Amino acid sequence: MMIMRRYALLLLLAIASLQLLCFAADDDVVFYDSFEESFDGRWIVSDKDDYKGMWKHSKSEGHDDYGLLVSEMAKKYAIVKELDEAVNLKDGTTVLQFETRLQSGLECGGAYLKYLRPQDAGWKPKEFDNESPYSIMFGPDKCGATNKVHFILKHKNPKSGEYIEHHLKYPPSVPSDKLTHVYTAILKPDNEVSILIDGEEKKKANFLSAEDFEPPFIPSKTIPDPDDKKPEEWDERAKIPDPDAVKPEDWDEDAPMEIEDEEAVKPEGWLDDEPEEIDDPEATKPEDWDDEEDGEWEAPKIENPKCETAPGCGEWKRPMKRNPAYKGKWSPPLIDNPSYKGIWKPQEIPNPNYFELEKPDFDPIAAIGIEIWTMQDGILFDNILIAKNDKVAESYRETTWKPKFEVEKEKQKAEDEAADSARLAGFQRKVFDVLYKVADIPFFSKYKHQILDLIEHAETQPNLTIGVLVSIVVIILTIFFKLIFGGKKQPRVEKKPEVAETSNGEGSSGEKAEEAEKEEAAAAPRRRRRDN
């Protein structure tokens, strides 16, 4: 009885703990949209004239899972979702996460989200556009040389009151496939931010580090004095022409770079009186040629056949050679400048906009917007999440993204293998066709049967193609080496002719040789031949 009570108590504690975790998880989820229901009535499409792209509630290819789809090419899109309550980025951890699938690829366009400031910053949902003020822009962007996962924060300079865009330096690149990928940004209270793609950390940075953001959040203490001017006598030349140098008397600036080779001699047999080209003796004037309309007919030119056997035709001229006396234009040598002061820079003065910062003063997030211009359609957004706990974001990745990704990855793998097999088969067919042509070359006739056997063997077992190529190359090299280096001839041994005995009825030696040749031919294996 006591044991049963203990088990019951443990069960109640486990249930209570599970409920507590669930409540904690619910409290940590600030916003989540799975798009299983239509976005109509929940998300607001911009009425601005530039944004004509049609949003659709559509299934992801190969899944029953719905998302928000970019349905048309070469259009601008803008849509926004107001949050029930603004998210404070200054307190605790904030996690921004969403999925995108580039079902048609991405050659030029964005697939990022904008996390907008409250509307009192000067924007309206129906007028949402690229000028609407945001706190964070996060997500993939690719066009031309641009290929990055943006992470941009707008921060207000406490001195000037101006909002500055701070771009993450060296952001990760965009995956190049057409699978579903999940992008996560984790903003931590210790001023660190982590960028994850598919749950794997690709970049870690610190908001206050000048090495991680451009421009840095904390300005430089000093700046170049805008009023400082370079003195007129300031000499930045490190080297100057030697003022004491004098051009040598034997320096001839007019000497040509090349001169005739006086030692050259006209080759024997040079045909001085023969032109390099002559009229084609076989050419005839076309019957429909009209001299008045077409002009005087001239036979086409051909190369002079007499010049083919001679060293040259026409007027012989000595070849040119480099002039040993050529020196070009003289200029004095360079020497160290005694007046050199270095490269001038304005003096540094205190930066009037400098401020110290212990933690960025981010504006809260009041809405999520997608404002993009893309050349591709098929971009699908799904499972947009804002949470206050990175473990919650991890659990969403495991349950909503990973199952889809695994299915897509296996399908992509099968398609890639099929495509590779088709390409390999096409390549092998071309290789075999070339090898059959090689086998038909008379030069290789002695080895033709051996080459054909190798090819036919490879056709039945395509994985042996490389080995067959190597074998045929070895055969060809063997032939060439024999041709180049030859071989030692065997000494000739003269034998005395044997006297044929015909009295025993066994036939002459000539008849025996004839019979032996027939037996040898009958014993030789037949070679398969390919009929082209």
UniProtKB/TrEMBL annotation:
Basic and acidic residues biased stretches: 224-249, 509-521
Region described as Disordered: spans on this chain: 208-318, 490-532
Chief subcellular location: endoplasmic reticulum
GO biological process: ERAD pathway; protein folding
Gene3D superfamilies assigned to the protein according to its UniProt record, in alphabetical order: 2.60.120.200, Calreticulin/calnexin, P domain
GO CC entries: endoplasmic reticulum membrane
Membrane protein topology class: Single-pass type I membrane protein
InterPro entries hit by this protein: Calret/calnex (IPR001580), Calret/calnex_CS (IPR018124), Calreticulin/calnexin_P_dom_sf (IPR009033), ConA-like_dom_sf (IPR013320)
Compartments, as annotated in UniProt: Endoplasmic reticulum membrane
Family: Belongs to the calreticulin family.
PANTHER family: CALNEXIN 14D-RELATED, CALRETICULIN AND CALNEXIN
Annotated function: Calcium-binding protein that interacts with newly synthesized monoglucosylated glycoproteins in the endoplasmic reticulum. It may act in assisting protein assembly and/or in the retention within the ER of unassembled protein subunits. It seems to play a major role in the quality control apparatus of the ER by the retention of incorrectly folded proteins.
Name listed for the protein in its UniProt record: Calnexin
